[in-house]
Specification:
Radius of gyration of chain A: 14 Å
Largest interface: A-B, 27 and 25 residues
Oligomer: heterodimer
Distance between the termini of chain A: 37 Å
Largest sheet of chain B: 6 strands, mixed
Shape of chain B: globular
Structural class of chain B: mainly beta
Distance between the termini of chain B: 37 Å
Number of strands of chain A: 11
Shape of chain A: globular
């Protein structure tokens, strides 16, 4: 079974530039997540999609971050303009529709962003 | 206070020894708990889910103490390959499907 795919794997940009990340979840997974993981910290949820609708984006800095999941499959996360503090690994994860007695979230390899 | 707290470590463990560490949480509505393993520069991978009082999978045992609001992970007969960061995650009853992660506990198994 193919896992969660992400691209690019690495990106270096200057502050105030724009960047976009792409995620292709596991086939059939209705729920898709974007996380930000800063070095030494745990993943922090940025946005959660169920199919192509947003379930939770309360921690997404909407003045500079945007995300979409057209057609309920692939997703893109954009940062415009980037700041130094956006340097982190951006992880995409997907899962089947969560159930109370069984649940697993599968992570992609992440995109390591460095803002200089 | 952070919602999910973990001792960052590192826990230096001789090969073959047992190591245990905790994850404390502040939200009493926390319902489901997970331990993820994250290798350096890799993505988190699910190690174990805990939906009731505990779970055991081979050398790994997770115990949930709802009264004291913590979950522990115990690794027996540690292997060099167990060296990683162990992330605790939880979901609450009012935010199903949304994970909150701790910052992780680093374990280093030495020969």
């Amino acid at each position: 079974e193919a896992g969660v795919a992400q691209s690019p794997r690495y990106k270096i940009i200057e502050k105030r530039q724009s960047v976009a990340f792409w995620c292709n979840p596991i086939s059939g997974h209705a729920t898709l997540y974007w996380y930000q993981q800063i070095l030494g910290q745990g993943p922090k949820l940025l946005i959660q999609f169920q199919n192509n609708g947003v379930v939770d984006d309360s921690q997404l800095p909407k003045d500079r971050f945007s995300a979409e999941r057209l057609k309920g499959v692939d997703s893109t996360l954009k940062i415009q303009p980037a700041k130094l503090e956006d340097s982190a690994v951006y992880l995409c994860a997907s899962s089947l529709v969560p159930r109370r007695d069984t649940y697993e979230q599968y992570f992609g390899p992440g995109t390591r962003l460095t803002v200089t | 206070r952070k919602e999910v707290e973990q001792d960052p470590g590192p826990f230096n463990v001789p090969e073959g020894a047992t190591v245990a560490f905790n994850c404390t949480y502040s939200n009493s509505a926390s319902q489901s708990f997970f331990w993820y393993r994250q290798d350096c520069r890799k993505e988190p991978k699910l190690l174990m889910s805990v939906y009731s009082s505990g779970n055991e999978d081979g050398r790994f045992t997770a115990q949930l103490n709802r009264a004291s609001q913590y979950i522990s992970l115990l690794i027996r007969d540690s292997k060099l390959s167990d060296s990683a960061t162990y992330l605790c995650a939880l979901m609450t009853t009012d935010s199903w499907g949304k994970f909150q992660f701790g910052a992780g506990t680093q374990v280093v198994v030495t020969p």
